[in-house]
C-alpha cells in the first residue's frame, strides 16, 4: 500500500468516526496535564493559557478543516497544561523545611480519622509561635497513638491547644513510589507529626464569621465521624469496620490483616466508593420507588414513575457521594450517574462513553493533579473498558437472532435471569480486571490470581445484600433503629471476608510483579483508548502497540539495594 493510498484509507476511517471525536477531549486535556507534571522545571507563567488562546484564535480564523482539527487538539492540550499550572499555583502553601522539637500550637480541627489504636487529625487556622521567622503552614496532619478516649470528644470545627513534634512531608520511599510530598502539596498540608500529651479545647480569641462552604464541610465531616463511631460501637469486629468504610468512606478501623486479605483476593476495590456503590444507591432508590408506585394504582396512573424515580435518585446519589468523602472515584461515579439519570429525565440514552468524557473533563479541569493518582487511572480505565465492551456486545446481539426467553415458563425465565446476572458479573470482572491490571501493577506491583472467583462471590453479595442493608441502616439511624439492618449488613460482609480469606490463603493467590517502566504504561494507555474510543476496524491497529506495552515488565527488575535520603 502506497503512502497516498494509506493516507486516503486513514482519512476515510477518520471521517467515518466523526461522532467519536468529542471523546478524545479528556485525552488531550490529560496529555497536557501529564506533560506539565513530567517537566523537571517550572514553565513560564501563563504559557499554557497563552498557547490555548492562540490555538483558539487560529481555530476561529481559519476555514481549513485540517488546520482547525490540529489547532483544536493543541488548544485543548494547552488548556490541560494551563489547568495544571493554575492548580499548582493556587495550592501553594508554606511547608516546613526541617523537624521541630516539641512545640505548642493552637488550631482548628478540619478532619478526624479514628482507629482502635489512635487516630489522625488534620488542623487548619494554625497559631504556632515557634515559626516566628517563617510562615505558618496552612494545614498540618498529626497522629496520636494508643487507645485515647479523649479523641472521641473532639469534632471537626473544635479549636484546640496541644504539644506536637512536626516534620516535613516525607519524600517517596523509592523512585517511582507513591509521592507523599505531591499529595501533601495539593492538600496544602505543610507538616506531618505526632501529638504529645493532652489535647485541650479552647475558645477562639476573636470569633470569626464562618463561611457557608466551610460550615457545610465541617457539618459533613462531623456527620461522617458520628456515623462511623456509631457503627463501630455496635459492630466493633472486622465486618463492622468494613461496614463503616462502605457507609462513610472512613477506613481507619479496618485492620491491616483484613486489608491485605482483600488485596490478595482482588476485592479491595469494594472499599473505594465508586460506580458500584453510587450505582447501587441510585438503582435501589430508582427501582424501589417504581415498585412502590406500581403497587399503588393512584400513583401508577397519575405519575410518570420512571422520571420521578430518576429525579429522586439524583439527590440520593449525591448525598451518599458527599457522605462517602467525595473522592476522585466517587466524583466520577456521581457525575456519570447524575448524567445517566438526567438522560432518563429528558428521554435520552442513559449510559455511553460521552458520560465518561463529561466526568473526566470536569475532574481534570478542577483537580488536574488527580491524573497522576491510581484512583483516577484505575477508575476511568475500568469504566471506559466496560462501556466499550458492553457497547460492542450490544451491537453483536442486535445483529444476532432475537431472544426467545419471554416464551419460556416462569422457572426457565428465573434461571435465565440468574444466569445472565452471574454471566454479567463474570464478564464485568474480567473486563475491569484486564483494564486496571496494568495500573495496579505499575502503582502497587501486586496482582490477585483468583480475583475473578472472589468477585463472582463478593459483587452479588454486595449488590443484593450488603448495600441495600446499608441504605436501610442510614435511613433508620436518626431514629435509633439501625441495629437490625446493620447486623444484616455485617452478616453479608462476613461472608465476603470469609470467602476472600479462603481464596487469599491458596498457594499463588497473590503475585508480586516488578513495576514496568513508564513508557510501558503510556503505550498500554494510548492503545487501550484507541481500542475503546473508536468503533471501526482501524481500532485494531492499536494491538501491536498494546503488545509492546504489555512487554514492559520483562524490561524491569526489583532493586537489590535501596538507600533513602538519610543514607539508611
Could you tell me the radius of gyration in angstroms? 26 Å
Provide the spatial order of strands within the biggest beta sheet.
1-2-3-5-4
Assembly level: single chain
Low-confidence runs (pLDDT<50, min 5 residues)? none
**Helix count, DSSP H or I runs of 4 or more residues:** 19
**Binned strand content:** 5-15%
String of helices and strands: HHHHEEEEHEHHHHHHHHHHEHHEHH
Mean pLDDT: 84
Give the beta-strand count: 7
Provide the structure class.
alpha+beta
Short note summarizing the structure:
The protein is of the alpha+beta class. The chain has helices at 3-16, 25-38, 47-61, 65-90, 180-187, 212-234, 238-248, 256-265, 275-295, 297-302, 305-323, 328-345, 353-366, 374-399, 410-444, 451-476, 483-504, 518-533, 543-550, and strands at residues 103-115, 118-127, 139-145, 159-167, 189-202, 446-448, 510-512.
Can you characterise this structure?
This protein has 568 residues and is of the alpha+beta class. It is 58% helix and 10% strand. The chain contains 19 helices and 7 strands. It has helices at 3-16, 25-38, 47-61, 65-90, 180-187, 212-234, 238-248, 256-265, 275-295, 297-302, 305-323, 328-345, 353-366, 374-399, 410-444, 451-476, 483-504, 518-533, 543-550; strands at 103-115, 118-127, 139-145, 159-167, 189-202, 446-448, 510-512. Strands 1-2-3-5-4 form a 5-stranded mixed barrel. A two-stranded antiparallel ribbon has the order 6-7. Strand 1 and strand 2 (118-127) form a beta hairpin. Helix 9 packs antiparallel against helix 11 (305-323) and helix 15 packs across helix 16 (451-476). The longest helix has 35 residues, at 410-444. The termini are far apart.
Amino acid at each position: 500500500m502506497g503512502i497516498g493510498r494509506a493516507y486516503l484509507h486513514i482519512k476515510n476511517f477518520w471521517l467515518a468516526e466523526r461522532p467519536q471525536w468529542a471523546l478524545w477531549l479528556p485525552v488531550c486535556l490529560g496529555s497536557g496535564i501529564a506533560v506539565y507534571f513530567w517537566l523537571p522545571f517550572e514553565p513560564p507563567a501563563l504559557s499554557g493559557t497563552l498557547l490555548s488562546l492562540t490555538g483558539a484564535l487560529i481555530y476561529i480564523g481559519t476555514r481549513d478543516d485540517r488546520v482547525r482539527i490540529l489547532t483544536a487538539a493543541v488548544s485543548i492540550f494547552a488548556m490541560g497544561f494551563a489547568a495544571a499550572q493554575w492548580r499548582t499555583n493556587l495550592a501553594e502553601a508554606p511547608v516546613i523545611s526541617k523537624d521541630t522539637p516539641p512545640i505548642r500550637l493552637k488550631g482548628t480541627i478540619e478532619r478526624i480519622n479514628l482507629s482502635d489504636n489512635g487516630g489522625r487529625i488534620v488542623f487548619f487556622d494554625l497559631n504556632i509561635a515557634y515559626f516566628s521567622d517563617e510562615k505558618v503552614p496552612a494545614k498540618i496532619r498529626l497522629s496520636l497513638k494508643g487507645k485515647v478516649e479523649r479523641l472521641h470528644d473532639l469534632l471537626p470545627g473544635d479549636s484546640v491547644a496541644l504539644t506536637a513534634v512536626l516534620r516535613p512531608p516525607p519524600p517517596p520511599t523509592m523512585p517511582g513510589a507513591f509521592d507523599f510530598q505531591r499529595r501533601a502539596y495539593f492538600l496544602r498540608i505543610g507538616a506531618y507529626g505526632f501529638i504529645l500529651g493532652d489535647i485541650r479545647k479552647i475558645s477562639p480569641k476573636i470569633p470569626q464569621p464562618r463561611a457557608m462552604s466551610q460550615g457545610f464541610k465541617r457539618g459533613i465531616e462531623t456527620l461522617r465521624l458520628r456515623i462511623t463511631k456509631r457503627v463501630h460501637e455496635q459492630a466493633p469486629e472486622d465486618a463492622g469496620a468494613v461496614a463503616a468504610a462502605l457507609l462513610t468512606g472512613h477506613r481507619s478501623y479496618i485492620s491491616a490483616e483484613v486489608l491485605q486479605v482483600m488485596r490478595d483476593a482482588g476485592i479491595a476495590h469494594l472499599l473505594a466508593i465508586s460506580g458500584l456503590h453510587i450505582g447501587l444507591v441510585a438503582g435501589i432508590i430508582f427501582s424501589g420507588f417504581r415498585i412502590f408506585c406500581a403497587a399503588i394504582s393512584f400513583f401508577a396512573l397519575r405519575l410518570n414513575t420512571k422520571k420521578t424515580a430518576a429525579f429522586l435518585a439524583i439527590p440520593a446519589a449525591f448525598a451518599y457521594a458527599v457522605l462517602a468523602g467525595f473522592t476522585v472515584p466517587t466524583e466520577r461515579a456521581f457525575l456519570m450517574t447524575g448524567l445517566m439519570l438526567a438522560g432518563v429525565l429528558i428521554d435520552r440514552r442513559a449510559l455511553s462513553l460521552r458520560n465518561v468524557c463529561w466526568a473526566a473533563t470536569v475532574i481534570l479541569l478542577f483537580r488536574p493533579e488527580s491524573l497522576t493518582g491510581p484512583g483516577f487511572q484505575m477508575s476511568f480505565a475500568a469504566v471506559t473498558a466496560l462501556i466499550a465492551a458492553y457497547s460492542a456486545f450490544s451491537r453483536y446481539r442486535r445483529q444476532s437472532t432475537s431472544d426467545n426467553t419471554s416464551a419460556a415458563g416462569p422457572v426457565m425465565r428465573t434461571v435465565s435471569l440468574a444466569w445472565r446476572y452471574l454471566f454479567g458479573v463474570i464478564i464485568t470482572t474480567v473486563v475491569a480486571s484486564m483494564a486496571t491490571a496494568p495500573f495496579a501493577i505499575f502503582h502497587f506491583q501486586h496482582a490477585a490470581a483468583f480475583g475473578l472467583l472472589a468477585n463472582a462471590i463478593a459483587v452479588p453479595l454486595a449488590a443484593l445484600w450488603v448495600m441495600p442493608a446499608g441504605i436501610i441502616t442510614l435511613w433508620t439511624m436518626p431514629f435509633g433503629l439501625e441495629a437490625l439492618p446493620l447486623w444484616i449488613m455485617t452478616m453479608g460482609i462476613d461472608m465476603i471476608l470469609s470467602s476472600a480469606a479462603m481464596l487469599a490463603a491458596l498457594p499463588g493467590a497473590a503475585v508480586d510483579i516488578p513495576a514496568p517502566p513508564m513508557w510501558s504504561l503510556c503505550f498500554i494507555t494510548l492503545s487501550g483508548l484507541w481500542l475503546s474510543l473508536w468503533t471501526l476496524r482501524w481500532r485494531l491497529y492499536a494491538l501491536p502497540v498494546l503488545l509492546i506495552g504489555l512487554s514492559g515488565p520483562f524490561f524491569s527488575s526489583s532493586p537489590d539495594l535501596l538507600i533513602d535520603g538519610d543514607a539508611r
